[in-house]
Amino acid sequence: MSHLLETFPNRSLLYVAQEQSPNARTEYASVLVSVLPSNLIPPVITYNSNTGYIFENSSVGARVYTDAAASTTLLKLAFTDPETSSSDLPVQFTTTVSAGQPFAVTQEGYIVLNSSVLDYEATTKYVLTVTVTKTTSPWYSATVTVTVNVLNVNDNSPVILVPDNYSVTVTAGNYTTAAPWVIVTVQAADIDFGPPQFKLNRVVPANATSKFSVSQNGSLSVTGSLSPGDVYAVYVTASDLGKPVRR
Fold first, then answer.
1. Distance from C-alpha of 212 to C-alpha of 205, rounded to nearest angstrom
2. Confidence at residue 105, expressed as pLDDT on a 0 to 100 scale
3. Could you check whether 44-151 and 159-240 share the same CATH topology?
4. For residue 194, which of 49, 111, 145, 190 is within the disulfide window of CB 3.0 to 4.6 Å?
5. What predicted TM-score, i.e. pTM, was given to this entire model?
């Protein structure tokens, strides 16, 4: 027969085997039982995409999307503990994002903007290191890298380059047959959606409008007859290629 002789909790068991006879002999056997502490496995991070998109100038709290139009599917991380089952209580995690980044991760796994500093002209993308940590000792953690692309918004108007006021002298004469006679080329720049496109806005006096024209690249031309002593104010508008159009 055999019976439990002594127990050392979580450490070892000592068994005795003894014959049932007048000259009973006894043999001993020990069994070492090692009880491993729980929470030795890091959490597991999954996601529907590790590349996201968000528009510049978004307000604080705006979320990151997986599609390049930043309008359809939200980027979402999921955190699980491989040591638990569906019948266990939910495991709590803490989430952090690498220092200096204007983003945070919610408990639900969404990436949100926590600082309204997004400017496409300054930074076009952010590479985030997201760390997920168990809230119980020994606080194992896991990391994942997520790239967030900033989408451009047409928030800058074209700028007429210096000089923005031109003074041009033209010899009197009839420029109809030689039209177009370029007298000056206006230059502009746009940091969002260029190159700027030019068009004639107005001429003062208004009855002289037909005497001038401007090409899309900013070349201002005389297309009519000019008399000695005439003075004209010609206004040219530069527009960008964005939506909505900015001037």
1. 12
2. 95
3. yes
4. 190
5. 0.71
